[in-house]
Amino acid sequence: MKPPTKASAGASAKSPMKPPTKASASRVVLRGGHLRDGSGDLGQHDLYLKDGLIEGLDLGGAVDAEYDADGLLVTPAFLDLHAHLREPGQEVKEDLASGLAAAAAGGFGTVVSMANTSPVVDEPGIVADLIARSERLALARLRPAAALSHGLRGETLTDFAALRAAGAVMITDDGIPVADSHLMRRACEYAAELGLVIQTHSEEPSLRAGGVMNEGEVSLRLGLPGNPDSAEAVMLFRDGEIARLTGARVHLAHVSSRRGLEVADWLKRSGAPVSVEVTPHHLTLTDESLATFDPIYKVAPPLRTAADVDYLRQALTGGVIDAIGTDHAPHTLAEKERDLLDAPFGIANLEVSFALLYTRLVREGTLGLERLLELLQDGPAGVMGWPSPRLSPGSAADVTVLDLETARAVDGRQLLSKAKHGPWLGEELRGWPLLTMVRGAAAYRR
Ligand SMILES: [Zn+2]
């Protein structure tokens, strides 16, 4: 880890980490950090990582590399079930190398990539190729999702069994709603047989129509076509009912509105096997942002009203929300500088998500740190049926080290994503990851 430079250091930057003594270390120690995982607060310890696994606490003995984590929080690396990494075919926006580097810089050790690429990830060979290439990069782990329908056309189902055998962990047409309810039913029946998770993009297409922002007071004032919260609520209800009917595990992605969340809550309480995701942008931005006519705020589902944001924030402490997924959706600056009506939907946020949520929710008192971590660790792991990430011996050595104190402004030039723009440029945030270890090796060092 480089010592902080004048340009990037906050006034009270501290604990610059020592660089490792070897590049490819097999036994590593993170010294003196404050350890916390989903089992609770573990106190201050030296954490030893060996051969890709957590070895134990305070063991001593020779190491190949050491990092000073004094004054820093050491916790399992985050899991993101929802990121658009754009490879294959849209590498001008993002690719595996930039996307997985950005993920590690954001504290994420595992990323589920979406299938709406070019070509679409609808064949086993594409899944296998993505995994092989990501492993050569040695950044965050890639667990690809595969498409539900061939070409995301919503007509014929892909071969879920073959896609799973190739390494796909989730089935989703995310980016495009599955309009045909019968196709959704057959997808859920097939996924239930295989134990695969289906992720939805729940917006009813004919209600959403040409909406470019939330339908409401602001869209009327601005004269922009609106996309009503009903489009979300109706489709969430359908997707949840099909989950109940078929027994499939259905992950309701990026729930953005109060109405939507109320439907999701009802579905869960009535026994539908659904899980619920919210995104960092729907927790921190409102439709008033669109008053600038800046497409940087154009996202699907759209940014909602301040009342919706408040409702989502309050719900974080209850049981309805299982996970925070980034829905990191990078585009080129040229695309995001088009006219608002023509610009593509999506916000890039992998690198700022934790710092943003820690600063705006935890430090401002809406949410406890423990719960925020849960929504990025045990929450998403539970959705997928993966083991809860832990700092105990034998767990994967996927660990992130967070500086919760030093304030630093978001600087586009320092972002590792190809999308060096976004709604939070210039904002002073705290909670920056300084180091992310994946398989026991440094995937990111600040
Ligand atoms: Zn989506």
Give a verbal description of the structure:
With 446 residues, this protein is α/β, with parallel strands linked by helices. 29% of the residues lie in helices and 21% in strands. It is built from 14 helices and 21 strands. The strands form five sheets. Strands 1, 2, 3, 4, 5, 17, 20 and 21 form an eight-stranded mixed beta sheet that branches. The longest helix has 18 residues, at 229-246. The radius of gyration is 21 Å and the shape is globular. The model is unreliable at 1-16 and 18-23 (pLDDT under 50). The structure holds zinc ion (ZN). Zinc ion binds at residues 174-175, 201, 253-254.
Main features:
globular; disordered N terminus; 8-stranded mixed β-sheet; 21% strand; 29% helix; alpha/beta; 446 residues; binds zinc ion; single chain
Number of helices: 14
Unreliable spans are: 1-16, 18-23
DSSP strand content: 15-25%
Distance between the termini: 5 Å
Q: Considering DSSP H and I runs of 4 or more, what fraction of the residues is helical? A: 25-40%
What gross morphology would you assign?
A: globular
- Major beta sheet summary: 8 strands, mixed
- Which structural class should the secondary elements be placed in? alpha/beta
User: Tally of extended strands?
Assistant: 21
Radius of gyration: 21 Å
Q: Could you tell me which ligands this complex binds, including any ions or cofactors?
A: zinc ion
Write down the overall mean pLDDT. 94
